Amino acid sequence: MYRSEKRSLFRFLAIYLISTFILFTIGSAIFYTLEKHHLIDKQRIEMKQEGEKIQHQLIRLHKTFESKLPIHVKEIYKIALLDKELNPIFSNFTPPKNTGFTQEYHLVDGHILYIKPVDPYHLGVAYLLLWTAVDQAGIANLQKMIILFMLGAGVFFLILGYFLGRLFIAPMHESIETMNRFIQDTTHELNTPVSTILTNLELIQTLHKCDAKEEMRRIEIASKTLSRIYDDLTYLKLNHQYHRNIQAVNISHLLKERLEYFSVAIKAKKITLHTAIEPDIVLHIDQDDAIRLLDNLISNAIKYNKTDGTIAVYLTCMQFCIKDSGIGIAKEELATIHKRFKRANSSEGGFGIGLDIVYQVVKAYCFEIQIDSQTDQGTEVTITWKK
User: Fold this and answer.
1) Which end of the chain is more exposed for a tag (fewer CB within 10 A), N or C?
2) Domain ranges of the chain
3) DSSP state, residue 40
4) What are phi and psi of 125, to 5 degrees?
5) Contact assessment for residue 184 and residue 237, using Cβ atoms and an 8 Å cutoff
6) Is the pLDDT of residue 225 over 80?
7) 213-238 vs 354-364: helix crossing angle, rounded to 10
8) What are the DSSP E strand ranges found in the chain?
9) pTM higher than 0.90, yes or no?
10) Where do the Histidine kinase domain residues begin and end (predicted)?
11) Is residue 269 within 8 Å of 309, Cβ to Cβ?
């Protein structure tokens, strides 16, 4: 799966799962609240039924002229019998202070208080109070059930979201595959004529004298540009399957070679080149990666430079730096300029893949890259590595 596909899939899954989680959380919260109230209401009904039974006991005792208390009550309940002045006739618990006797039920500190007026008074009892703890076991089971439901639903919707996401990015995948096949076919077709042109051009320059030096120079620039585009497109096509042959590469010598390779293009644009290259700087890197890194940065410095401009190239044991006097990059573009197919200036040529390749190489070797630029004042790119 390509990076763009993974990025789109992850974004889709994130939005899908977060929205689903929010909806299920709201739904579960409503369900939990309703079920909790249902459990408490069930306890209230049971307490009311127990109160009716106790009232019948009071009536029976009153009719038989007995005054023996306490009344028989279930063990889960505590009872208090109060007279009309709210004085206790019998009580095995202390009712909460400031209890409103106009309200039938009270929730106090995880307990339910049931108040039943007794009318007419039996044995002087005006109020019957029952006290019991809220059924925490039932609420705990409810919470456990909701958590298990949320986990199960989460796994289900994660799997469903993944397959929906794959269906969502399928057209993108097909388009990318089509484009890659086009690039592969195009680069394959370009390779042979470009190689033939460059080979024969070198032979002509070596073995024959030619009066059309300017025309030959233009052909050389165009051929080298095509060759570099071919190399870049091939690298992008291989992407993660690219096999790197890590070896000790003399970057100082390679940099001089690449500057010589671009010398015709530099002269054509009348650019003044300043170099400060320390000798025999060696890096352990794949040579083709090093060439791509240098070529793309040098090519950009030429392409986006001004006529009669300058390029300064520095190489030390710690870093490579290239600075041009070109059109520069707007501040708001710096953060995204390295993305594939992104170009700072559409009036210039290119496909917008150079800096993407540079960043891929930098990432592969854990180098650090810094781009400093100002519009119409030029750009400075610095690659730093560990010694």
Assistant:
1) C
2) 3-134, 244-384
3) H
4) -85, 120
5) yes
6) no
7) 50
8) 78-82, 88-91, 105-108, 111-122, 125-133, 246-250, 272-277, 282-286, 310-315, 319-324, 368-374, 378-384
9) no
10) 185-387
11) yes
